[in-house]
Amino acid sequence: QVQLVESGGGSVQAGGSLRVSCTASGYDYHQNCMAWFRQVPGKEREAVAAITTGGGPTYFADSAQGRFTISQDGNKLTVYLQMNSLKNEDTAMYYCALETVGSCYASRWRGEAAYNFWGQGTQVTVSS
Q1: 93 membership: H or E segment, kind and range
Q2: Which phi and psi (to 5°) does residue 88 adopt?
Q3: What is the 3-state secondary structure (H, E, C) of 34-80?
Q4: Which of 15, 48, 86, 119 could form a disulfide with 6 if both were Cys (CB 3.0 to 4.6 A apart)?
Q5: From the CB of residue 13, how many other CB atoms can be counted at a distance below 10 Å?
Q6: CA distances from residue 100 to 11, 24, 45, 70, 114 in whole angstroms, order as listed
Q7: Which residue(s) pair with 51 in the sheet?
Q8: pLDDT tens-place string over residues 3-58
Q9: Residue 47 and residue 59: Cα distance in Å, rounded?
Q10: DSSP β-bridge partners for residue 38
Q11: CA dist 31 to 63, 70, 82, 112, Å?
């Protein structure tokens, strides 16, 4: 049973930083695509960043470029999203997603359909 567990969400003032984590378990590690999405009530879920576990390019939404970084730990089962210079509009539920078929691709990483496992989400709230 594949499981993704997010942690690290919380409240922060605008301009501050926060790091959220996603730990995957229950599957045999291969080179996979792990991504962060976010969603606010009444809006569609949007892709924020993605990384190919085991090495490979990273991808960022325009809104995250230059402020967020995505990385993985040494055993490759935990992925981090470091968020700096946070803005009010970054407030959302942040979800981790895993695609177990293969690597991230520039043409696919933004689409929810590319991912076959999802975490429960962690709330990030940015206030002025």
Answers
A1: strand 92-99
A2: -55, -35
A3: EEEEEECCCCCCEEEEEEECCCCCEEECCCCCCCEEEEECCCCCEEE
A4: 119
A5: 10
A6: 31, 11, 20, 18, 9
A7: 34, 58
A8: 999 999 999 999 999 999 999 998 776 788 999 999 999 999 999 999 998 888 89
A9: 10
A10: 46, 94
A11: 26, 16, 21, 19
Q: Which amino acid is at 68?
A: F
**Rounded distance, CA 48 to CA 59, Å?**
8
- Alpha-carbon gap, residue 56 to 33, rounded angstroms: 9
Residue matched to tokens 């949007």 = 46
State pLDDT tens for residues 60-94. 999 999 999 999 986 768 999 999 999 999 999 99
In which residue are the tokens 């942040």 written? 94
Residue with the two structure tokens 């407030």: 91
Long-range CB contacts (within 8 A, 24+) of 114-119: 114/33, 115/33, 115/35, 117/2, 117/3, 117/4, 117/24, 118/4, 119/4, 119/5, 119/6, 119/22, 119/95
Q: How far apart are CA 36 and CA 51, in angstroms?
A: 9
